[in-house]
Amino acid sequence: ALNVSASKTWYFVADKFKLKYSAEGPIVELELSMIQGITKGDTILIQNTLGTYKYNDKTWYGLHGAMDWERAGLPKKEVFCTFGDYTINMNTQSYEVDSVIFSYKNYFSTDIKGRLSDKLVTNNSEDKTNYPKFTAIREDVPLQKISPNVIYDGGFTLAGAKILGEASADD
Question: What is the pLDDT of residues 30-55, one digit of tens each?
């Protein structure tokens, strides 16, 4: 485990890792691996990641990663995102990534850019969770034909399995 407390635990799952000691204290360097956050009734899983964990500041510095909405009940091959550099303060139960590429295969014909936030929630369930949460960059949301006579043009957020739309002040 990378960080353990009464409310949550952060693990890594990797075949190879290096344990080093530097002036900053102990460091774990992970090759391609998974980071997993666990609390009672909820699990976060970041896949295809690599990076460095610094024990003294309890922070994971990831170079890239991927995650999906399976814990919100959505198929992992249809709803997912990928991202570059990110950090997780493992003293907390949440993390945010400012720039992700999001794919919702049954809803959008192209990938869209936006922001990801995720949080471990005690006693979470598919039907009531608001995480993971993706919020699109407003300019990047393609027009959606909702029905034959209705086209949606607005913001897009996916909070758990809930789709939320929004208008800008100009709309």
Answer: 988 999 999 999 999 999 999 999 99
Q: For residue 8, what pLDDT is reported?
A: 94
Q: What does the DSSP assignment read for the chain?
A: --EE-SS-EEEEE-S-EEEEEETTEEEEEEEEEEEEEEETTEEEEEEEEEEEEETTTTEEEEEEEEEESGGGTS-TTTEEEEESSEEEETTSSEEEEEEEEEEETTT-SS-EEEEEEEE--TT--TTT---SEEEE-GGGPPPEEEETTEEE-SEEEEETTEEEEE--TT-
Angle at 123 between CA 104 and CA 71, to 5 degrees: 20
Residue 146: predicted pLDDT? 64
Q: List all residues 6 or more positions away from 25 whose beta carbon is below 8 Å from its beta carbon.
A: 54, 55, 56
Given a cut of 70, the residues of the chain with pLDDT beneath it are 140, 143, 145-147, 167-171
If we measure between CA atoms, which residue out of 67, 45, 10, 41 comes closest to residue 128?
41
